[in-house]
Design goal:
- By secondary structure, the protein is of the alpha/beta class.
- It has nine helices and nine strands.
- It has helices spanning 80-85, 88-95, 102-112, 117-125, 181-200, 207-214, 231-242, 245-254, 256-266, and strands at residues 5-9, 12-17, 44-47, 96-98, 129-133, 142-144, 147-148, 165-168, 173-177.
- The chain has a five-stranded mixed sheet with strand order 3-8-9-5-4.
- Strand 1 and strand 2 form a beta hairpin.
- Helix 2 packs parallel to helix 4 (117-125), helix 3 (102-112) packs across helix 5 (181-200) and helix 8 (245-254) crosses helix 9.
- The longest helix has 20 residues, at 181-200.
Length: 269
């Protein structure tokens, strides 16, 4: 995987990510409803926190945001045999294409390490990269293998992507805003898993959509108000709740069929 180049000039961030480590045998599936207003074929699933205060320090220059890329401990992974030798933490680290500093990487790795190995492998094998973007850097300046990640006019329900974490299915990139990475990491990973699982298993419709319909009559409510937005957010919020001790109990009460399904789908044997 090519290293990401971080070029800062006049306090503007230009971030370039190498080509994803995709499995050539599996093409992206038609995932259905577009999560945002991106170009055709691109799905943007944004995490929109309740508060309008995104935090972070926008005054520091990009030179202070971290110079080069994090070193990929996995290197050039030579086959499935080598992947099996990696710990969950090493597997996640291999997906991180850019992070402002090592401590941020370690924090996100610890968060995502709660996810089952089965789910981690599904997303890794689909060629998904994780970019942790410094707060003061614009996602509109991110370049993926020579292609702009976000066109200047693209918004999410009328809201700029400047302060949003999101998953782009077309580029297979999870972009996490540094200031909200802790809250959004598992949620955005869930969107990546939804897309990867649907594509790799060649499902006739996106996994989240089938579950949205399948459990519509049995669920008593949603684990969060955001989960009721659409089928993608329903899956992502339920997935995130599944990996939270207290929210999982709430998911079990409100949507027991979904909790059982996730248990069977995600938990390692």
């Amino acid at each position: 995987m090519d290293f990401l180049e971080h070029i800062c000039s006049m306090l503007k961030c230009f971030i370039s990510v190498g080509e994803p480590h995709a499995d050539p045998e599996h093409e992206p599936c038609d995932a259905g409803e577009d999560g945002g207003e991106g170009s055709a074929g691109t799905l943007y699933y944004a995490y929109m926190p309740e508060s309008g205060d995104m935090g972070g320090n926008r005054d520091r220059g990009c030179e202070e945001a971290g110079g080069g890329p994090e070193e990929d401990p996995g290197g050039d992974l030579a086959g499935k045999a080598l992947i099996r030798t990696l710990s969950n933490e090493e597997l996640i680290s291999a997906m991180v294409s850019y992070s402002p500093d090592l401590s941020t990487t370690r924090f996100i790795v610890r968060e995502l390490a709660r996810i089952s190995r089965k789910a981690l492998l599904t997303v890794h094998r689909h060629g998904v990269n994780i970019v942790i973007l410094p707060t003061e850097c614009s996602p509109y300046k991110v370049d993926i293998d020579g292609k702009v990640l976000l066109a200047p006019h693209v918004t999410y329900k009328g809201r700029s992507y400047e302060d949003l974490s999101f998953f782009s299915s077309d580029h297979r990139v999870i972009l996490l805003r540094e200031s909200w990475a802790a809250y959004a990491s598992i949620h955005e990973f869930a969107h990546a898993f939804d897309h990867a699982y649907s594509a790799r298993n060649r499902l006739p419709q996106q996994l989240s959509l089938s579950l949205w319909i399948r459990f519509s009559s049995s669920r008593r409510g949603f684990v969060s108000s955001y989960a009721g937005t659409n089928h993608q957010e329903y899956f992502a919020e339920s997935f995130a709740a599944f990996y939270d001790l207290f929210q999982r109990e709430e998911l079990r009460k409100l949507d027991p069929a979904m909790e059982r399904f996730l248990s069977e789908l995600l938990e390692d044997e």
